[in-house]
Design brief:
Helix content: 55-70%
Order of helices and strands: EHHEHHHHHH
Shape: extended
Number of helices: 8
Largest sheet: 2 strands, antiparallel
Length: 190
């Protein structure tokens, strides 16, 4: 069980009030009392991951959903035409290579921006920005490494300017959450 913050409880109650008005039904008192907690049911052994870290691990699931959303939105990985198997495989490999380039670039730049500027980058915004730079990457690779470095630097400044994650919620960053898990795995390995 995980107790929500006051801000989270207010937001959840506001949503419940809206649903009550919309549907014309009133929620039970028991349901309203449960508004302030999240309950996680898992088969992860407490010896492997302490119960204090379960909430943070499950919050990473949302990041996975964002990853699949970007794959589907920007790379149309969920759509394919009726073509020969070989052509489909080539297309899929090409899309996966583009995703790999995008992710590795995003991860490195996100980590630098977080460490140097204490700025968290939105995955969705960053994916969009990086994808628009693909034609420039292609042109720069054909020229020389200096041209490619200049494009990466422009991309970095573009992410810094336009890729900021919304600060509506006071949550831990992905790096913080992974750090919690990483620190625990190091302590158990000793």
């Amino acid at each position: 069980m995980y107790r929500l913050t006051d801000v989270q409880v207010k937001k959840r109650r506001k949503n419940q009030d809206f649903k009550e008005q919309k549907k014309g039904k009133e929620l039970s008192d028991k349901r309203k009392q449960l508004t302030g907690i999240n309950v996680y049911i898992t088969n992860i052994a407490w010896e492997i991951v302490p119960k204090e870290h379960i909430h943070h691990l499950y919050s990473l699931r949302w990041q996975i959903e964002i990853v699949f959303k970007t794959w589907k939105s920007f790379f149309q990985i969920d759509r394919c035409k009726n073509v020969k198997r070989e052509r489909l495989e080539c297309h899929l490999y090409g899309q996966l290579i583009a995703i790999l380039i995008c992710f590795s670039t995003l991860f490195q730049m996100r980590e630098i921006l977080l460490r140097k500027s204490r700025m968290e980058v939105s995955e969705y915004k960053a994916f969009y920005i990086i994808q628009t730079y693909f034609p420039l990457f292609h042109q720069a690779i054909q020229k020389n490494t200096q041209a490619y470095a200049k494009i990466l630097l422009r991309l970095f400044h573009q992410l810094k300017k336009n890729g900021r994650k919304s600060h509506r919620y006071k949550k831990k960053t992905i790096f913080d959450i992974l750090g919690v898990v990483y620190e625990y795995s190091l302590s158990t390995a000793k």
